[in-house]
Amino acid sequence: MPVLVSCFNSLTIMKNGFILILCLLTGFASFGQGEIDYQNKRLINSLKKNGITGFSRLKEINSGQSEIQGKFFSLLNKSEVSGIQYVFIGRVNSCRAGGCSISGSTPSNQESEYFEYLILYDSDKTVKMVEVYNYAATHGYEITAKGWLKQFAGFSGNDTLEVNKNIDAISGATISVFAITNDVQLKTKILKLMN
Predict the structure, then answer these.
(1) Residue 155 and residue 165: Cα distance in Å, rounded?
(2) pLDDT in tens, 39-52
């Protein structure tokens, strides 16, 4: 928003149509999702809390999985971190309230909000922990609660995750609950297929 305010202040001085268009495009571009910031302070702190002191200890292992929003990593020195072997860091697009006009489709950036999270896996590629470190959506913040996220621990990909069955629903966070549940399930299955 500060970009737009400063631009409109310049317009009162210059009154040039070209500057107006340039300012509007710059201002609206700042609202886009952009790329995942793998140096995000909250992400780095989350990794540190779990014994991973930096990306120098991680090796990217995506192996051609360019269609996913995020990256898989393997720990280079497993003995440093108790029980953790793999890390997924990624983003989930979830529909805005009233968005996602086509049911069952993947939301586009224009009709979605997002959150960024990490999944820690053991050497068997079983979920040890899920943590949402950047919640950029307007509704459904309740899914960031550690107590609720503990439901994913132990998920191995051999069964399915279902909201209202083995994952608790949250009133007011329905869209986010389904989005993270589906994504944890998908990312675990992708990791299982990697060598």
Answers:
(1) 14
(2) 899 999 999 988 88
Total structural domains within the chain: 2
Total count of residues recorded for the chain: 195
Q: Round to whole Å and give the CA distance between 155 and 88.
A: 14
Is residue 55 in a domain? yes
Give dist(CA 127, CA 25) in Å, integer: 42
d(CA 115, CA 135): 4
pTM, rounded to two decimals: 0.75
59 with 112, same domain: the answer is: yes
Which domain does 13 fall in, by range? 1-31
